[in-house]
Specification:
Rossmann fold; 2 domains; seven-stranded parallel β-sheet; alpha/beta; binds uridine-5'-diphosphate-4-deoxy-4-fluoro-alpha-D-galactose; 325 residues; globular; UDP-galactose 4-epimerase, domain 1
Length: 325
C-alpha cells in the first residue's frame, strides 16, 4: 500500500512513518517543515515539501504518486496558542484539511485517517472517557478537529470515504530514532527533560488547585510507538468500515507525578515553580481505549509511565539539541 502522510516530519508523524515502513508500506511524506524536521523523515520515505493551503501542490502529489490512503497529522496543535490565536487554528486546520479531503476525493482516494484529540472532552461526565462521551471542545484547536471529524462523517455518506478518527490523549516517549522536538517546546515531558539536561532552570507548574490527587492536572500519557501502531491497525481495518477511537493508556498521572518519575529516571532534582493555570487546561483527561482494544486487538507495549519517560530521556540525551545537532 502507498500511504500519504501529511505532517510526516513531525513528532507522531515521523514515528508512524517509521512503523509503516517497517510494516512494508510505501510512504510519501507531505510537510511544510514549519514544525517538522527534514532529519525526522525516514530515509525510505519520499518527502514532498509543500503546504496544504496550496491545492495545486496537493493535486500534483496525488497525480504523481499512486496513493491508496492518507494519514493526516499536519495541523497546528497547541491548545494554549489556539486560545490566543483562534483564527489561525479555525482557519488553517479546517481549510487545509478540507483542501486535502477535496483533492484526495477528486483523485479517487477513499481511505483517510485523522489525527484527532482528547481536547474534544472539556467537560467529561465519565472518566475514563470512552467514545460515547459528549463532545465539548476545549479550545479552538479542539473545535477545529471536531469540524474535521464532522466533515468525515458527511464525506462517508456522500463520497463513500472510509475513515478513522483517532483521538490521542497525551502522546509521549520516543522510538530509538525519532522523538519530540518542537520549537518552541510547550509540552510537559520534553520541558522536564530539558531541565534535566541543564537547558532550563526549572519547570513551571500550571496550577495546583485542580480537583485531582495533588491539585495538578492529570493526563493519560500514551507511548508514541503504540499510537503509531494504532494507525496501522485502523488503516488495515478501514475496509470493514469507518470508526472513531479514543487512544490512551487508561492511566492518569498528575504533573507532579510526572516530574517525580523524571527525577528518578534522570537523577536530576528538576526544580519546579508554581505558576498560574494555563487557559484551556482541563483537570483530568484519561481515556478508555477498550473499543480499539476489543475491535482491533490494539495492545500497548509501553504501559508504564517510567518506561515511557525513559524512552524520551534516551532520545533527548542522544539529541540534546533536537534534530539540529
Ligand atoms: N504543564 C505544566 N508546565 C509546563 C507544561 C505543561 O504544568 O511547562 C502541564 C499542563 O498544564 C498540562 C500538562 O502539563 O496540565 C500536560 O501539558 P502538555 O502541554 O504536555 O499537554 P496537553 O495536555 O496540554 O495537550 C496535549 C496535546 C494536545 C492535545 C491534548 C489532549 O499537546 O494536542 O494533549 O489532551 F489536544
Amino acid at each position: 500500500m502507498s500511504v500519504l502522510v501529511t505532517g510526516g516530519a513531525g513528532y507522531i508523524g515521523s514515528v508512524t512513518v517509521e512503523q509503516l515502513i517497517q510494516a512494508g508500506e510505501q510512504v510519501v511524506v507531505f510537510d511544510n517543515l514549519s514544525q517538522g524536521h527534514k532529519k525526522a523523515v525516514h530515509p525510505n520515505a519520499t518527502l514532498v515539501e509543500g503546504d496544504l493551503s496550496d491545492r495545486t501542490v496537493i493535486d500534483a502529489v496525488f497525480a504523481e504518486h499512486n496513493i491508496d490512503a492518507v494519514i493526516h497529522f499536519a495541523a497546528r496543535s497547541l491548545v494554549g496558542q489556539s486560545m490566543e490565536c483562534p483564527f489561525l487554528y479555525l482557519g488553517d486546520n479546517v481549510t487545509n484539511g478540507l483542501n486535502l479531503l477535496e483533492s484526495m476525493t477528486d483523485h479517487g482516494v477513499k481511505k483517510f485517517i485523522l489525527s484527532s484529540t482528547a481536547n474534544l472532552f472539556d467537560d467529561p461526565e465519565n472518566i475514563p472517557i470512552d467514545e460515547t462521551e459528549r463532545i465539548v471542545p476545549g479550545s479552538p484547536y479542539g473545535e477545529s478537529k471536531y469540524i474535521l471529524e464532522r466533515m468525515l462523517y458527511w464525506l462517508e455518506k456522500t463520497q463513500g470515504l472510509k475513515y478513522a478518527a483517532l483521538r490521542y490523549f497525551n502522546a509521549a516517549g520516543a522510538s530509538e530514532r525519532f522523538g519530540e522536538n518542537h520549537d518552541p517546546e510547550t509540552h510537559l515531558i520534553p520541558i522536564v527533560l530539558q531541565v534535566a539536561l541543564g537547558q532550563r532552570d526549572h519547570i513551571p507548574i500550571f496550577g495546583d488547585d485542580y480537583e485531582t490527587v495533588d491539585g495538578t492536572c492529570v493526563r493519560d500519557y500514551v507511548h508514541v510507538v503504540d499510537l503509531a501502531q494504532a494507525h496501522i491497525l485502523a488503516l488495515n481495518a478501514l475496509g470493514q468500515g469507518s470508526r472513531t477511537y479514543n487512544l490512551g493508556s487508561g492511566q492518569g498521572f498528575s504533573v507532579k507525578q510526572v516530574i517525580e518519575a523524571a527525577r528518578k529516571i534522570t537523577g536530576h532534582p528538576i526544580p519546579t515553580e508554581m505558576g498560574p493555570k494555563r487557559p484551556g487546561d482541563v483537570a483530568t483527561l484519561i481515556a478508555s481505549s477498550d473499543k480499539i482494544r476489543n475491535e482491533l486487538g490494539w495492545k500497548t507495549k509501553y504501559d508504564d509511565l517510567h518506561t515511557i519517560i525513559e524512552t524520551a530521556w534516551n532520545w533527548h540525551k542522544a539529541h540534546p539539541n533536537g534534530y539540529e545537532d
